[in-house]
Amino acid sequence: MVIGGSVNVPETLKYAGVWAWRQIDSLRSLGVEVDTYTFVNRRSIGGLLSGGLEMRRKAKELKSDLIHVHYGAAQALVAVLFCSPPVVLKFGGSDLLGNYDANGRKTWSGRLSVLLSRLAAFRAARNIAVSEELRKALKFPSSQRKCEVIPNGIDLNLFKPFSKKEARNALNWQHDDPVILFMNRKGAWVKNPSLAFAAYEKAKKRLPALRIQIVETESPERMPLFMNAADLLLITSRHEGSNNTVKEALACNLPVVATPAGDIPKRLAGVQPSAVVAPDPTIIADSIEEILQQGIRSNGREYVTQLSLENVAKRMLKVYRETLCV
Fold first, then answer.
1. What is the rounded distance in angstroms from the CA atom of residue 112 to the CA atom of residue 110?
2. How do residues 164-200 score in pLDDT, each as one tens digit?
3. pTM above 0.85, yes or no
4. How far is CA 81 from the centre of its chain?
5. What is the pLDDT of residue 100?
6. Cα–Cα dist 160/111, whole Å
7. How far apart are alpha carbons 139 and 129 in whole angstroms?
8. What number is the average pLDDT over the span 151-170?
9. Beta-carbon neighbour count of residue 203 at 10 Å?
10. How many Å apart are CA 181 and CA 270, to the nearest integer?
11. SS3 category, 128
């Protein structure tokens, strides 16, 4: 089977879509022949048209059995309109939930992306959504019926528990203070950093030694160090698809306190100690204090083994085979 895929990140920004590249490698390990194509310019009509033509040319040259497009919006619609092989679309979050400005208003481009994603899903052979919320966001019943919910896979060989002392030494953290880890995507409104900082300040009044480690841009290979060096992951998102950081934290047995965004309630079901809480700084601070006072790691890893890269690749391969009826 030869799959031509559209990956929504240029080579120079590979870190931003590292989950996609890891999943591609896991598919190759199952014997799937994968080639990739990246839209050079997806923000202009000319760029989309030329990209669509190039994708069609490449799919024909490779004799691709199937096209898998990571992420929806304009490039997804171009793929289903231009390419002859069956197209499988994978939706990850903002492509179906929209983008927001700093004031929390949905942008016009975000609204357009949602519309184009839904149109593309209607025309696609099959759809994949990383959460049930996103599957429902497809709106059209026919699009939902041909949609499989498959979260992104986790590299369990990379994300695994190891010594906190070892991790802190590697990061040059010269202290034993409790640390909250917070992923702040350059202050993105959807991540709700103001709520995270307000909750941290309240918790710090009760736990004066408490620190917060803000991570914005880090090498993916260094993230397991942060997961094992920290004492708790804090997520205050307003909405999510299927938050990869939460799953990576669980793989490292790092306790999580999070708002109920995307599939987080499902991911944290049964995980102890961890908590899904209302978006209120006092309630969040209470949960932070309660978990940190326990001073133990979570049992999270046992809840994400089914989301290993290999297991997710097998589920994706099943979708491919069903699409091709092989």
1. 5
2. 999 999 999 999 999 999 998 776 888 999 999 999 9
3. yes
4. 26
5. 79
6. 38
7. 13
8. 96
9. 25
10. 21
11. strand
Tokens of 307: 């989301």
Report pLDDT digits (tens) over 103-125.
778 788 888 899 999 999 999 99
Residues in the chain: 326
DSSP 8-state class, residue 146: T
The token duo for 244 is 């990869």
User: Mind listing the domains of the chain with CATH numbers?
Assistant: 2-153+308-324 (3.40.50.2000), 164-306 (3.40.50.2000)
Closest CA to 252 of 261, 244, 264: 244
- Nearest one of 256, 255, 277, 268 to 303, comparing CA atoms: 268
DSSP 8-state assignment for residue 106? B
What token pair was written down for 29? Answer: 């390990």
Residue among 178, 167, 193 at smallest CA distance from 296: 178
d(CA 113, CA 73): 4
